[in-house]
Structures are given as structure tokens and as C-alpha cells.
């Protein structure tokens, strides 16, 4: 099992706690990235949103791609999984940027491809917003262009959404045959796209049994296509304490959220713009990406057992959110990662 974490580019993950003591600024993310390598973490996911959907639209939110380039220059080992939304990026220009960051990092860049869901953000940034299945059709063309530009020169393509003529991209990425591509989604359109064009499947938090069913589904789709096995990752919010009483107290603190919270309107747009397998509760909303459903909450032994259960159903890596991020990652490293190692 590998352990990763979400870089807190939004200043936190909790809807009801205004100040989580992790500023959305370069000083904090630089320190966290460097310290995470010392703590034994393997990868970090750098999310991409121009507005802050957790703390509210008026709150700061770091740009994913310039942040990734800067982190690449000040770290040595950690994988940089950068989210990218095709509707916000020309495929050829993004392929060029990504190749450059791949060289800065020494081949550590990977992409997490996200089909946009936030209609208001698109309007405010002058980006055309499409319906769910249309976004995935666009993403399929986008991925085809990026993949080919990373592998060959003099590439041309004409489709419904994009056109490139005799395109050249140099230098090519260090990663061969190209940087690793992750994506997530629970709709039929998403799963078909991921199975056919990506290398890894990143899932929102859920119980191991549900995660296992999704993994088996994607594995079967890959086998039908004659493609190699994928990697599978799950989002999880972690709470590690010495007693169950302490765990319950922390859960009560972070889930005391109301529908009037600053990011609730954005959350409602996320629900409207996605196709999920399960309904979500207000408690799910209190923590980003359904992280509490993964159940990485308990004593060190309980959390280690839960990690083993995820590994048994085929999970390759966990992406942690916690608050405050650095202090809780240090606790998780000492209590779980180092013990399992």
C-alpha cells in the first residue's frame, strides 16, 4: 500500500471550521511537500479549482499548475498527481506544460483528469460549460491529443471539439511511454472513458466492500479491452487517536456542519453536475470527497486493520485528507505508516 495526501490548496477540508491552521499559500504547501517526503508519503494530489468550493468563493485557492511546478523544484521523491480539467485547457498547450514539469521533477508528474462539474466557476472564468456526457466526450478527444503529442511529432487530429495540425512537442516527457493518467467518476460514461484511456482509477471515499466492487468492475472492463491492469486509489479522511472516546469527540467536532456553510451552494452544484452511485448526507458534506466513508478513523490498530482491508480488495494507494494537515499527517505516519513498514 502506498500513502498519499491531498495538498490543501484550499486552506482546509472542513466546511464548519473557518481556520484550520493551514494557509492557502506557497510557504505552507512547500513545507508540507518537503516534510511529507521525510514522513514516508509517496504521492500528493494537487486539485484544480479557480474558486474555493470548500471555504466559499471569496476564500483563496491556489493554482494547481504553477504550484505543481514549484513543488517539483523543491522535492526529490514524491509523485505529483496534478488535477486537470480539459474544459479549462487546450490539449496541446497542456501537454507542453506537463512535459516541462515532468522534466523539472525528474519524471514524477502524473495527471488526474477531471471532467468539470462547477457551472458557476466556468461562467466566472469565461469557460463554456457542457452537460455531463458531453464533457466526457470532450475529455476523450482531449486525452487522445495529449497522449499522441507526448509520443510523436507531426501529429494531426480533427474532431468535434479540437483540431491540431502537424503539431510538434519537444522535449518529450521523461516518463515513458507517457506520464501516468488517473481519473475518477461513477457514471457509465466516466467508467468507460477511464477503462479505455487511463491508467489509474481514483475513487471518492467509501466502505471497502463498495470500493472492491468498483475495482472488479474496472478490472473487467480493462480485460475486455485487452489492456494492462490499472492502479486504484481511494480518498480518505484520517483521524488517529489513542482511544475511541477521543475519536468520537473529533468526529463530533468536524461534522457539526449546517447547510448555511459558505461552500454549501457549490456542493449543491457538484451534486447536480455529477452522477453518483449513492446519495450523500450532510455529514458526508462536512468533509471533502466523502472522506469519512472510508473509515480511517480509530486507534492505530483499528486504522491499520482498515488499511489492510482496503489492500485486500485491491486498493493500491490511499489519498488522505486531515486537519490540520501537517500535524495529522505526522501522527498518521508515526502510528500507521512506520508501523506497517
From TrEMBL:
Biological process, per Gene Ontology: alkanesulfonate catabolic process
Q: Name one Pfam family in it.
A: Bac_luciferase
Record's keyword terms, sorted: Flavoprotein, FMN, Monooxygenase, Oxidoreductase
Q: Does the keyword field hold Oxidoreductase?
A: yes
Iron as UniProt keyword: no
Q: Which residues form the Luciferase-like domain?
A: 1-316
Q: Which InterPro entries match?
A: Luciferase-like_dom, Luciferase-like_sf, SsuD_RutA_monooxygenase
Q: Which GO terms describe its molecular function?
A: alkanesulfonate monooxygenase activity
Q: Per its record, how is this protein called by name? A: LLM class flavin-dependent oxidoreductase
Organism encoding this protein: Spirosoma validum
Amino acid at each position: 500500500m502506498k500513502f498519499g495526501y491531498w495538498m490543501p490548496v484550499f486552506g482546509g477540508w472542513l466546511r464548519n471550521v473557518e481556520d484550520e491552521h493551514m494557509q492557502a499559500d506557497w510557504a505552507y504547501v512547500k513545507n508540507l511537500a518537503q516534510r511529507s517526503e521525510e514522513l514516508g508519503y509517496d504521492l500528493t494530489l494537487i486539485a484544480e479549482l479557480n474558486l474555493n468550493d470548500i471555504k466559499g468563493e471569496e476564500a483563496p485557492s491556489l493554482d494547481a499548475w504553477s504550484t505543481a511546478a514549484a513543488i517539483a523544484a523543491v522535492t526529490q521523491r514524491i509523485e505529483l498527481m496534478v488535477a486537470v480539467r480539459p474544459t479549462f485547457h487546450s490539449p496541446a498547450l497542456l501537454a507542453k506544460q506537463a512535459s516541462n514539469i515532468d522534466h523539472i521533477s525528474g519524471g514524477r508528474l502524473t495527471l488526474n483528469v477531471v471532467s468539470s462539474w462547477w457551472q458557476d466557476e466556468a461562467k466566472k472564468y469565461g469557460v463554456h460549460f457542457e452537460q455531463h456526457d458531453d464533457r466526457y466526450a470532450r475529455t476523450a478527444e482531449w486525452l487522445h491529443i495529449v497522449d499522441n503529442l507526448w509520443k510523436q511529432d507531426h501529429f494531426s487530429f480533427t474532431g468535434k471539439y479540437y483540431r491540431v495540425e502537424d503539431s510538434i512537442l519537444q522535449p518529450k516527457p521523461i516518463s515513458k511511454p507517457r506520464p501516468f493518467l488517473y481519473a475518477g467518476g461513477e457514471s457509465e460514461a466516466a467508467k468507460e472513458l477511464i477503462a479505455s484511456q487511463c491508467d489509474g482509477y481514483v475513487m471518492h471515499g467509501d466502505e471497502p466492500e463498495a470500493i472492491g466492487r468498483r475495482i472488479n468492475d474496472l478490472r473487467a472492463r480493462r480485460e475486455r479491452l485487452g489492456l494492462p491492469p490499472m492502479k486504484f486509489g481511494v480518498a480518505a479522511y484520517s483521524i488517529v487517536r489513542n482511544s475511541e472516546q477521543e475519536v468520537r469527540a473529533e468526529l463530533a467536532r468536524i461534522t457539526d456542519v449546517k447547510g448555511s456553510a459558505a461552500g454549501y451552494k457549490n456542493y449543491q452544484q457538484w451534486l447536480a453536475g455529477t452522477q453518483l452511485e449513492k446519495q450523500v448526507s450532510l455529514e458526508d458534506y462536512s468533509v471533502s470527497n466523502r472522506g469519512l466513508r472510508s473509515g480511517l478513523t480509530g486507534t492505530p490498530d483499528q486504522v491499520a486493520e482498515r488499511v489492510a482491508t482496503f489492500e485486500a480488495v485491491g486498493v493500491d494507494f490511499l489519498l488522505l485528507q486531515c486537519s490540520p494537515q501537517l500535524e495529522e499527517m505526522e501522527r498518521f505516519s508515526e502510528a500507521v505508516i512506520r508501523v506497517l513498514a
